[in-house]
Amino acid sequence: MAAQIQTVSVQESVFKKLGAFLIRYGLVLVLGWIGAMKLTAYEAEGIKNLVETSPFMSWMYKVFSLQATSNLIGVAELMAAALIAIRPLAPKLSAIGSVLAVFTFLTTLTFLFSLPGWETSLGGFPALSGSGGFLLKDTVLLGAALYTLGDSLRSKQA
User: N or C: which terminus of the chain has fewer CB atoms within 10 Å of its end residue's CB?
Assistant: First the structure.
């Protein structure tokens, strides 16, 4: 009986460590990939409707060009990804990257309310439009960013 309990405990520990690794480096992968895409004309055009309808970001097109705005957002996402990734070396810097990611996902979640996020042809809420469905995943990414923030702050080196 004791051996069974110990085996379950070891398995639980392995799954927890693997899950924590995938949360952190999955977040790094998503932020890095999406951030790099922002440096392309295709993605700059793709986020135009999101940014121009945002009460927090629409001002950017008055100051910067379409591509410059996308580049700025992309660089912020790439920086957040890099900082989150270096947690084993620099937990304090990693915490800063997580804070950047938290703000990124809080901002993108506001697009659900500033963009037509509901599909009117299906009766509106709760039927999500293509953009609404795309943005909904950011709730999970926000949770991952909060997890990595807490993990970085908890570090003995922080």
Answer: N
